[in-house]
Amino acid sequence: MNRKGILFVISGPSGVGKGTLKKALLDQTKDLNLSISATTRPARPGEVHGQHYFFMDQAKFREMIEEDAFLEWAQVYSNLYGTPRGFVLNHLQQGRDVLLEIDIQGALQVKEKMPSGVFIFIYPPNLEELAFRLVSRGQDSQDSIEARLAACENELKHIDYYDYLVVNDKIDHALQKITAIIIAERCKIKNLNMR
User: Fold this and answer.
1) What pLDDT score does 15 carry?
2) What DSSP letter does each residue of 129-193 carry, written as one string?
3) Rounded to an integer, what distance in angstroms lies between the CA atom of residue 81 and that of residue 26?
4) How far apart are the C-alpha atoms of 25 and 29, rounded to whole Å?
5) Per-residue pLDDT at 67
6) 161-184 residue pLDDT tens
């Protein structure tokens, strides 16, 4: 008996630990394929096309937008980023699960196009801890941190669009919960090919 591929989407506010959880999940979970994004930004040293990103020029990216070839896309400063629909569907049709780690706005776009996905909201223990994590990263200015915290309060209003809520109080606890979600979803009758 084989199963259908499942799209697992993890998202949450900036600084909540999505990237850390993604890496840990990929290290420990068998048969979980990371969704690779497309971008118009130039490759950085050591980045490989088709492994880190699908690098393309603006014209090709805009053509794909017109063809509705992205599950979601966004402009970040002068560059475009998106999740290629074909890459994800190809894996799912072959019975392989796909993990997509994305911001909340992107997850809401994906939910519109693929409501059958499993949407997991990563939640901070509290806003004070989230502020501490953002400061500890050392990547953002004070103004940026304040903007991210303000955005977080608004983003938390979108929890109803998700299937699961995982509080990332400790990485190993959050990882156990996400792993349990993956195992349970893989056992659901609707995700099995019974014939």
Assistant:
1) 78
2) HHHHHHHHHT-S-HHHHHHHHHHHHHHGGGGGG-SEEEE-SSHHHHHHHHHHHHHHHHH-GGGEE
3) 22
4) 6
5) 97
6) 999 999 999 999 999 999 999 999
